[in-house]
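Hey, I was hoping to borrow your eyes for a little while. I've dropped the whole record in just underneath, so have a look:

——
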Amino acid sequence: MAMYRESLPEEYFDEPDTTNHLAWSLLTIVAALVVWLLISLSNAENQRHALLTKACQDRVFPAETDLKCLTMVRTRDHWWQHVYYALTHPRD
């Protein structure tokens, strides 16, 4: 082995890689999943609140719902208000 040790470049320090790539990869995937779920929950609660308050009632046919309005409506000021309400009122 002494023969091979002499053939190494001078800047080689033989430091082992101690990074746990599996743990960091799983953490990144879980964080992305949580962000995606929060966005989905916020959108669902926004639409639920719009339907509850009749914010997207069709002007021509009052018994119908305007679906284009339902995708664009903002019923609360911030996304975290939707998430907070959805998490604290699971049965509503």
